Task: structure prediction
Amino acid sequence: MTTDTKPPLRERKKAMTRQSLIDAAERLFEERGFDAVTVAEIADAANVSVKTLFVYFRSKEDLAFADERLIEALLEGLANRPAGTAAADVVAGVLIAALGDSDGTPGLEGFHRGYGRSVALQSGLLRMWADFEDRITEELAREAGAEATPRQRMHAIQLVGIVRLATSPEARAAIVGLASEEAIACVESMLAEAAAVVARSFPAGLP
Result:
């Protein structure tokens, strides 16, 4: 006899509504910028009422940081990386995939238009990077089978530094005016260089 492990329909519908709100907010933020988008516009784009939106999120700021797909991809990549693969190389690979738009160009412009220009989001971004650092430190400690160490914390800080580099104003400026293929090559080179620097400090196989 098989057991149905899927969540109840009600829970699945709630999860779908929540994700629809996150996706709508992300799209609008990246199109027009966080400050220029209203809660009503996000609700309308997700085909729900403003009242429903506030059932799932307390504020527009909460929506801006609700998407955890990047950190989840980073943690999954680290946990499943082959033996001998540097953590920094995994992070660079995940970022190269995550920063690609549907047309293949790096999504740096959309990120900065949506999040990087808003003063209201700066403290939230810092909290997000700190959360990334904590969760990556926990994963490195889990791999080592012991309590987290200062060295693992330092490694996590540098790995998050690669992520922050990819979304930095300098990275965005480096690809301004480049054709799609040139922009992709520029971002890949930038991330590969950063990963190589980190990997020299934290070679694969060392705790």
